[in-house]
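Hi D.,

Good news: the full-assembly prediction came through. Inputs first.
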Amino acid sequence: DTEVTQTPKHLVMGMTNKKSLKCEQHMGHRAMYWYKQKAKKPPELMFVYSYEKLSINESVPSRFSPECPNSSLLNLHLHALQPEDSALYLCASSQAGGIWGSTEAFFGQGTRLTVV
Amino acid sequence: QQQVKQSPQSLIVQKGGISIINCAYENTAFDYFPWYQQFPGKGPALLIAIRPDVSEKKEGRFTISFNKSAKQFSLHIMDSQPGDSATYFCAASRRRGNRLAFGKGNQVVVIP
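Then the structure:
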């Protein structure tokens, strides 16, 4: 099973709302990622969790708050977003970096977020 | 700073033809080079990947060619089909890192 499952598939939220994006994988991967992708652009890395610890934060605004409750789950909590935050939010997972190195990253289908 | 440069930006190919997308990188510490295929509204799907100890890797109709001295790698799609119409991203990373550097993407359209 090489599946990364993201919910919801679509989300419309107001600028004062609080919502969460969820991601789940059962491949035993210990690295999980959040990416943001705008139309016709490559994915942009937001956060990396390695062994359930936040290892990379690409200077993402605090209105995005990641959480990794366990090795299979990754959440992205959203609060007070702006219309320019509308994008496809992608979760990915891979073997964690380390002595054996990182390997293939598998992406979920994404959550299409619209901020109104 | 674009760590991986991808060309061309878009490509139109006749069915049965060969699609070729090129990428170049600067960081010699990169040692893992995957290609992702993305359909509209979907997440990127890993297509094929190569490490610099080989010069070519083939999986079905997809082939990666790798030129370490030129710091270039390319994707060849043989016998292109309309179902191959998608955006293709090359990427690169370091063995001990968790950060993928993506190219800007290439939209391939295969016309019947």
